[in-house]
Each structure stands twice: as C-alpha cells, then as structure tokens.
Amino acid sequence: MATMHDVARLAQVSVSTVSYVLTGARPISQATRAKVLTAMAELDYQPNAMARGLASRRSRILGLLLPMDERGLGATETAFVTGAAAAASAVGYHLVLSPVGGGGDLDGLRRLASQRMFDGVVLMEVQLADERVTALQQAGVPLVLIGRTGDTDGLSYVDIDFAQTVREAVAHLVGLGHRQIVYVNHSAETLASGYGPALRTRDAFVTAMTGHGLEPVMIPAQDSAAGGRAALAAAFARTPDLTAVLAMNETAVFGILGELTARGLAVPDDVSVVSMVTSPQVAELATPALTTMTSPGSAMGRIAIEALVRHLDGAGDERHQQLLPCALEIRGSTAAPRSRHTDGG
Amino acid sequence: MATMHDVARLAQVSVSTVSYVLTGARPISQATRAKVLTAMAELDYQPNAMARGLASRRSRILGLLLPMDERGLGATETAFVTGAAAAASAVGYHLVLSPVGGGGDLDGLRRLASQRMFDGVVLMEVQLADERVTALQQAGVPLVLIGRTGDTDGLSYVDIDFAQTVREAVAHLVGLGHRQIVYVNHSAETLASGYGPALRTRDAFVTAMTGHGLEPVMIPAQDSAAGGRAALAAAFARTPDLTAVLAMNETAVFGILGELTARGLAVPDDVSVVSMVTSPQVAELATPALTTMTSPGSAMGRIAIEALVRHLDGAGDERHQQLLPCALEIRGSTAAPRSRHTDGG
DNA sequence: CCGCTTCGTCGAACCGCTTCGACGACTACC
DNA sequence: GGTAGTCGTCGAAGCGGTTCGACGAAGCGG
Hints:
The first copy, chain A, is of the alpha/beta class. Chain A has three domains: 4-47, lambda repressor-like DNA-binding domains (434 Repressor (Amino-terminal Domain)), CATH 1.10.260.40; 61-160 and 297-326, Rossmann fold (3-Layer(aba) Sandwich); 162-294, Rossmann fold (3-Layer(aba) Sandwich), CATH 3.40.50. The first copy, chain A, has helices at 4-11, 15-23, 30-43, 49-56, 75-90, 106-114, 131-138, 162-176, 188-192, 196-211, 225-238, 250-262, 280-283, 297-313; strands at residues 61-67, 94-100, 120-123, 143-146, 157-160, 181-185, 217-220, 244-247, 272-278, 291-294, 321-324, 327-329. In chain A, the strands form two sheets. Chain A has a six-stranded parallel β-sheet with strand order 2-1-3-4-5-11, sandwiched between helices. Chain A has a six-stranded mixed β-sheet with strand order 7-6-8-9-10-12, with helices on both faces. In chain A, helix 13 (280-283) links the parallel strand 9 (272-278) and strand 10 (291-294). In chain A, helix 8 crosses helix 10. Chain A binds a DNA duplex through residues 3-5, 13-20, 22-23, 25-29, 32, 47-48, 50-57. Chains A, B: InterPro entries: HTH_LacI, LacI/GalR-like_sensor, Lambda_DNA-bd_dom_sf, Peripla_BP_I.
C-alpha cells in the first residue's frame, strides 16, 4: 500500500501538497498537480480511510440504526435500506447497518455514538415517544428520523404522509361507489405501544370517512395471515354488507384475501381491497394484483441520507422535515361495488 | 469527548498503561487497573474508533458487497443481510452495506478494497465465473463468498446445498405419489449468464428425477408473476397430465398459483406446488400456504460473518467452505395427487 | 548474595492523513 | 519603487490511539 509520503517523494513535493491536490483545500498549480497525479497513478495510490477520518474528524460513515427485535424487515423497509445505501454510496459515504436492541439499549446507543465512528445517523422505526432520539441528540450526533416523534421541534425527519395517503385511498373507494368501508389496522397492542403509523392512519381514517358522511369502522389485526382472516371475520360480523377493505398491514392483507376466497367472495367484484404502504413487488403477488398506496421506501431512504449529508457538508443547521405520500396505484383488487343492495342501509 | 490522555492524567498513569488496560495486550496490576477503570467511568470515556483503527490497522468494519442492479432484495436476501448485521454486531464489528455496480465496476471494487476501510468483506450474488473474486483476492482483502464460483480452490464460501435441497423436494413429491413433476427454473437468460443456483438446481433436478426413473421436465420463467403464468401454460402444453410443480423462483410461483386458479385447478388437490429457497413469510402469503424448501437466509448471514471474523481474529488461514440445505417445510400446497389417471402413460 | 527472569509501567515512535502558520515570488496599485 | 495582497508550497504539529524497547522491582535457583 502506497502512502502519501511515497507519492510526495516520487512527485518531489511535500506531503501537504499532495493532500491539497486531493482535497482542494488550497490552490495548487497545474504543473504540480500533474506531477502529483502522475505519481498517484503510478503507485496506484488510495488514501487510507482511517487516517483520513482521524485527521479530518470526519469518518464519512453514516449509521443506519434499525431495531432488531422484529422478525425481519418487510419489503418497504428493505427498499428503504437499499435506497439509503445507494444514496450514501452515491455521495461518497459508507452506510453501516447497525441493529440496536429495541428501546432498552440506550447505553449501547450512547456508546456507539461516542465512538465517533458515525458522522451522522438515520434512526428507523421511531416511536411517538422515543428516548433514543434524546439520547442521540445529547450525544451530539447529527440525526435524521424515519417516522417522527410526537414533538418534532428541532428535529429532522422523513415520514410517510399518512393523512394524505388515507385520504386518497378512501377517496378512491368512495369514488368507485363504496359506502361500507372497513379499515384493518395493526393490532391493539401495537396501537397501545404508540406506533405512529397505526395511530396516524387511524385518526386519518376517521377524519376521511366522517368527511364523506360515512361511518368509520375499524378492526385491529395481528401481523399475520391468520390475523387477517380473523379481522375479516370480525369485520363481517360487524358490517355484514361491507364492500371494501382498507388494510394497513402487508401480512394481514393476504389472510384477508384468503378468507374472502374461502367465503366465496370475489375480489374485486364482491369486495374491493386496498393495501396501504405496500410495495409493488408484494402487490403483484396477489391474484388479482392489489391496488395499493405504494410506499416510497427507496425514495425515503435516499431523501433521508441526502438530508443528513447536506446537514453535514453544509454549515447550516436547518432542519429537514418532510412528509411523503404513498401513491395510489390501481391494480386489479378494486372496482365499483356490485349492486347487491341498491340503496338499503 | 475525553481522550486517553485525559484518562491517563486523571488516573496518574501513562497513556500506554491505559491502552493496556483496554486491550489486555500486557499485564496490569489490579490496583492500577482499578484506578484506570475508575477514571474512565468518571470521564465517560469511549475510545475513538478512527484512532484505534489507524493505529492498530484493524478497522473492525466488515463490508457486505451486494449488487445494486436488481430491483430490490428478496425476502431471502433481506434475511441474509439482517442476519449478517446482527452477527457482526454481536462480535463487535460494524457492517457496511456497500452496493457495487454489477460486474463492470471492478475498478471501483479495487479502490474500495485499497482504502483499507474493511477488515474483510462478504461478497453476495457470486457468479460461476466472477472476476470480482479475483480482484478482491489480489487486493488482499479477506473474503467470504455467498454462493460460489466454479473453482473454489483456496476460497471461503457459504452456499445453499442445492443438490440436497432439490433431492429432498423431489423425494417429498415422489413420496406423495407424483410422477409428472415439472421444474420451473429462472429465465433462459439467467441460466445463460452463469447463475449458479439456476444451473445447480437444474443439474440436481435431472439427477433426482432420473434416479427415480422419471423424466425431468424443465421450463424457464421470467422473474415475475406474468413469467410464472407463462411458464405454467408452457408446462401444461408439454406435460398435460402434470400433477406437481417445483418452483425455483419466489416471484414466479405466485403467477403459477394465479394461473392454476384461473384454469380451475385446485392446490393441492389437482396440482401440488413446492417453492424452493423461499422464506416462511413469503410462504404464508399464499392460500393455501406454500410447502417450501425454506432458505436459511439469516443463518447464512451469520455463518458467513462468523467465518470471516474467525479468519481475521485467529491467525489460521483455513478456508471455510460450507453448504447449507434448505429445510423442507410442509404446508398446504402439497398432497397426494388426485387419481385422475390411475396408471396411464 | 549474585545474576537471570518475569512483572508492571513508562516514554516515545509511529499509523497516514489534515491543516495551520510561514515564507518566497509575483502581481497590483498608488 | 515601496507596500500590500494573492498564489503556491513547505514544514511541522496534531488527530487519538497502539506497540515496542527499556527499566526498576521482585522473585528465584544455586
């Protein structure tokens, strides 16, 4: 491995000159620059990342903190992670995937932050009240959240615009003529734990339905196919003439579809289904393919990283707060309701 | 941020003594150790990762090189990545997710390797003939492959035992009484490009079927639901009385299921389906849930990292070569064939 | 009681880069 | 033509650790 000294010697200049050629921190004449560049090429020189990081106090490494308690990432999260990795790589940063124990491991987090390995971090799966955020802030690490806390004062975040997403989804169904729409949310425990997406979509659903003069019927469901089945059964018990299901639960939605088929109901002729915050790949797995509110997973990853890097490179300490809506993608699982009951109620 | 000097001053010892307390490279008396530890606690000292990396020439960072050309990772790859991240974190290493341009970007790879940022790397999606492997070897980076090249001499790798996996899958179907089994593989282009899993399962399928005295019928399919549909149509054209499908293509298998339903055929009563190298989460999305050869994604990630770290920490330069079979998990998509043709040919 | 190890600690030399102050050589302006 | 800036370059001092050689104090066999 050639070092800067080797390059300097070969080019007959000082080390600092080599450094300035590399960083552009000071002007260098064309002639000198050429000499140095030639020497670098000849020696196949690559700057040592650790040395650079130590001297400049910038590691050019970003941390992606993800909770590891869950049983694996969903398609949306995966898209987010790869989008973030690609974006980081594109701007010359490295991205460390750092699984952190869910919640309890605050000390571990602080230790991580104090090692000065990360120039900044992206924190995933933020809860409404999240002590990790304050821990990280106190450690002085530049921070971008995915999701957001209740109080976002002085914080940078990127999140899904759940209100807008739900509004559009409901508008789509109502526009098709649906009146009996049931919302299948995450489980009651998840709601109770303060999981932002579940709470925000719940509120948004109530608002949207009420706005259309309709009754907001909501059913919780476990994150599993069985949970979806059970939820659909519960939905029919409560609203026998439902014609549409809005689901917030990638896993449960397939159970819903299965249960629908088992009951001899066709999608979309008897019941329309919209799956929210869902990736196209998953949507295509169903037959018919699911109409979804497509999650901007990869874009969110990119935007989060770009915001973080902008904050690091630029001197400004502006906060980046952005909400991204999910895009309605109409596939085969939604249609006008078959006029079973023309006007009853 | 307190430094080692601060700790040394407070504990009234030299910096090197503090270092020895930390690394254990030399014996330190109980009394001194206690003084140092107390000082560290008082100052809330955390060693600087960059400085340590520079001085020790060990960054404690591992690279996970994944091709970024594809449209996102599947569930199996995701499990692999998270498994690797968890394993790295457990042994005190960091894991950098490094998307590298597929194939052509050899120079970028070399540059990456020369930066000495990674103590070692895990290379995913290895092709049968993969120049990235030699590039990395020449750069002198400790390396573990996921998948394997044609010639694995002197290389460490972890891969799926495709031969064993296919043998078990076929045995399962044959054991149920199936005789007309069609194998749906990846696309012809993928085969032609030298994609190991596709080639190895192809060969294994021929061997397994021939071993049972059966004819190995194989159909390629694009990696999409539509591809699965087309493949199934082709399969029926070629083998009208097929009773079982063995699929090597997580995406296509859902198209196959859809097409089966469209043709009025029930799973598993009319046609049994086994999906290979598939995660349980995906299996549960289908109705009925798919019988799979479950991919050991997370375990592979863990094993790869552990092998790499063992190689780094231990002095030994033994190679780690390991094949992991997929486990047969019987769910609802396989059953004995309905005796449509009792014995016909 | 002497010479030899072993133990515990220190000081100093790096690791390979960035960055600051200094300085000679020009250019520019009055 | 003297003074004041720029420009281009150099030397040296870090950045915060690790690690090696050295050395005094014990411990030990003869």
